[in-house]
Write a structure and sequence with these properties.
about 750 residues; alpha+beta; Jelly Rolls; 6-stranded antiparallel beta sheet; 21 helices; elongated
Length: about 750
């Protein structure tokens, strides 16, 4: 019977192409995932409901039950409440009554979640989006009611399903003290949606105080953009036109007025607006009356009462000048329902924040696509990643002594080719968002650099000045969940670097990029293996000098990488060697008297002898022993033990010593504090300095194995990992019939090579 065959992908000739399959390894994928939490699927909901109907019982959520922990630690003590199902509160409960409306949901008295209520009201204005979050087929009708309901929220790039029971917290006399429908009290989707959202956050109390943009992102999967209206220097000159264009592109808008910092209480102002409150923006209009153009916004108060009392309020005399035709064209109306119109200039003066949430239609299917039909739309590219201590958590580059680690952060290439059709200066509108997980939030940022040479290769401290310059450096001063910035850029190639404030801070991130024109983006990575230095220079791999040709041959190599959305193929100019490496150069021999002290009668040495010899050589050359372990000596010996005999000659031991001296020199240069250790974040830089690149996956494997919890690698482990890396790479190359074919090896060959690293 034929032996089992194992095929390996050949190494790419491009020094910046990701090693094929490196992102598919389970270990790599596990490290890159955000923190997880318990959710259900549609199948779980259906099976749970079917079981309840079959058994004739009502569902009771084991993870979010009728108990104090569901409410939270504070309100259980200070506010009376009881748990009741809608059928215990009214005789004819309904999930939805004549569809959803922005007037269906009102804020309760027990919790300050106006940001959630305002966002839910906005969601209700877009039926296709609403039905994705609130499946409409749910009911209280006999025969199909089991006390179980489900909702969907967008969480860190994925849609998750939350299943709840319908036991709701109510006050004395069965009053709804949380979100409810004030106009149609027997409609319960608002209360149940709030409960599901509270479960997503851990408890009801977690909804006390929040941001409209965060809830809108959770409801839509959109990208939020935030404007601080009290910083006019950061507001674009054409701001109203920007807001109107955004609204016309089916983006969702919300606004907030901050509370008095001394009281932090919701407070009604004489003009009818509330401090410490969030509002929905439900329309944007521009209308001309008596030759004067009016820029207007329509807002809704989640309290479903109290409205703006200034110009364009319900009682404003200006309504007398609005024709019935204009009212119909612009959907202008006057009703006392907590919704009102106000001039844009008054809005800019009275409000503190404006949040825009932009939607990418490609993430929607079926009827959801109709929302964007015939409209100018956004196109999104997204990449999930993770800052990993000792691997790619390089920090912001501004804090000493970690400035040099900045370029170890993940780097993404963005190719902008076509300018926006609506831009008068032929530039590209780009919105870049960086989002982090819900727990252990960091101060995060994102930087954008123009690649002057247009080549999507990793930037570092040595090549940055020659290859790139900074376009935008944007970071938060707080641990915000999402940070975004809007840029107008010339067509070109850009490098986007997401980063945390401090080096070695771990956490997941989601990078998202919105443009009007479709673009290509990908993670910039390197293949594990030799890289091409300047023509005519010497590439040192171990103790072997490989002279590269003076006149390299250009080639075009496609770069293929997989993102969280699609597979992107980017073709970039590369240079590959045209001749095979030259033979090894001369190596200085170890002193024969020294060698004989450790060699056997056969004039050969094994791993134990090699360990003692290297320690003695280090003592003689550097004044202290190298501290080599037996395991390190074994791996060093294996590099030059061609026949797997477990011994090497004087000539081969001399190559080992040359290898150790070569890498000790590099180790010492990066050991700036003379601690006889280096930060594992430096590994890729050290290898690159020697003419050998490590992919992100390879770097992570080495850092985890040798850096440990502290991410610190001592000299002995450093030499060991370099030796194993070289031996592993050389073994792969030995199984390639030629550089253009995959490496094929049978199981026994693979086992022998792997066990003798």
């Amino acid at each position: 019977m034929d032996q089992q065959q194992i095929s390996f992908q050949q190494q790419s000739q491009s020094p910046w192409e990701p090693f094929p399959g490196s992102y598919d390894s389970p270990a790599f994928q596990r490290r890159m995932q955000p923190e997880s939490f318990s959710t259900q699927t549609s199948e779980d909901y259906a099976s749970l409901k079917a079981a309840c109907l079959r058994d004739g019982r009502l569902y009771e959520d084991p993870d979010f039950g009728a108990e104090s922990s569901t409410i939270g630690p504070e309100y259980t003590i200070s506010r009376p409440y009881a748990w009741k199902r809608p059928k215990e509160l009214v005789s004819d409960p309904k999930f939805l009554v004549a569809g959803a409306s922005r007037f269906d949901i009102a804020q309760g008295d027990y919790i300050g979640d106006c940001w959630f209520v305002a966002s839910a009201a906005l969601l209700a204005t877009k039926p296709e989006l609403f039905e994705r979050v609130v499946p409409p087929e749910q009911t209280f009708e006999d025969g199909d009611y089991a006390g179980i309901f489900h909702f969907r929220f967008w969480y860190f790039g994925e849609w998750v399903e939350i299943v709840i029971d319908d036991r709701l917290p109510v006050g004395r006399d069965d009053e709804m003290k949380f979100a409810h429908n004030k106009i149609t009290p027997n409609e319960y989707w608002p209360a149940l949606l709030e409960k599901a959202y509270a479960k997503l956050h851990g408890h009801y109390e977690a909804l006390e105080g929040g941001l409209v943009r965060e809830a809108l992102v959770d409801f839509t999967g959109g990208i939020s953009e935030h404007f601080d209206l009290k910083k006019p220097e950061k507001i674009p000159d054409d701001f109203f036109d920007l807001v109107m264009r955004t609204f016309q592109m089916s983006s969702i808008l919300g606004a907030e007025i901050w509370s008095d910092p001394k009281s932090l209480q919701v407070e009604r102002m004489p003009n009818g607006l509330y401090k410490g409150h969030a509002y929905s923006i439900t329309n944007v209009a521009k209308i001309t009356i008596r030759g004067r153009e009016h820029q207007l916004l329509r807002l809704r108060n989640p309290y479903a009462m109290d409205e703006w009392q200034g110009e364009w309020s319900d009682s404003s005399p200006i309504w007398q000048d609005v024709t019935e035709e204009q009212k119909q064209d612009f959907n202008l109306r006057v009703e006392d329902e907590g919704e009102f119109w106000m001039p844009f200039e008054d809005f800019m003066r009275e409000f503190d924040n404006l949040d825009l949430v932009h939607l990418d239609p490609s993430s929607f299917t079926g009827n959801l696509q109709t929302t964007f039909k015939g409209k100018l739309v956004w196109n999104e590219r997204n990449h999930k990643g993770r800052w990993i201590k000792g691997v790619n958590a390089g920090g912001c580059g501004l804090l000493r002594p970690y400035e040099d680690l900045y370029y170890t952060n993940p780097q993404y290439v963005v190719h902008l080719v076509d300018p926006d059709p609506t831009d008068t200066e032929d530039k590209c509108i780009v919105i870049i968002s960086i989002m982090q997980g819900r727990t252990d939030r960091l101060m995060i940022g994102v930087d954008v650099h123009l690649m002057k040479d247009g080549v999507p290769a990793l930037l570092d401290g040595q090549n940055y000045g020659e290859r790139a310059f900074a376009v935008k450096e944007f970071r938060s001063r707080t641990a915000a969940r999402e940070l975004s910035c809007r840029l107008r850029l010339n067509p070109g190639t850009y490098c986007v670097i997401p980063n945390a404030l401090k080096a070695n801070q771990e956490g997941p991130f989601l990078l998202r990029i919105l443009t009007i024109q479709k673009i290509d983006t990908s993670l910039i990575d390197e293949s594990t293996g030799p890289i091409l230095p300047r023509p005519g220079s010497t590439l040192v791999i171990g103790a072997i000098d490989r002279k590269l040709p003076e006149t390299p041959t250009p080639s075009t190599t496609p770069i293929t990488t997989t993102t969280t959305t699609t597979t992107t193929s980017i073709t970039t100019p590369t240079i590959t060697p045209t001749v095979a490496p030259s033979a090894p150069g001369p190596v200085e021999r170890i002193d024969d008297d020294m060698y004989r002290q450790f060699a056997g009668e056969d004039y050969l040495i094994d791993a134990k002898d090699l360990r003692d010899l290297l320690n003695a050589l280090c003592l003689s050359a550097y004044g202290s022993e190298g501290g080599f372990s037996l395991e390190t000596a074994r791996s060093l010996l294996a590099m030059y033990d061609t026949w797997h005999l477990g011994v090497v000659s004087s000539e081969e031991a001399s190559k080992v010593w040359a290898f150790v001296k070569n890498w000790k020199e590099r180790f010492d240069r990066f050991d700036k504090d003379n601690s006889r250790s280096i930060d594992s974040l430096e590994l890729r830089r050290i290898f690159r300095d020697s003419g050998f690149s490590l992919s992100l996956a390879s770097s992570m494997a080495l850092s985890v194995r040798y850096g440990g919890r502290l991410g610190s690698i001592g000299f002995d482990d450093f030499i060991l990992l370099v030796a194993k890396t070289k031996r592993c790479y050389d073994s792969f190359i030995s199984f390639q019939p030629n550089p253009k074919e995959d490496a094929t090896v049978n199981l026994e060959q693979w086992m022998e090579a792997a066990l003798y690293l």
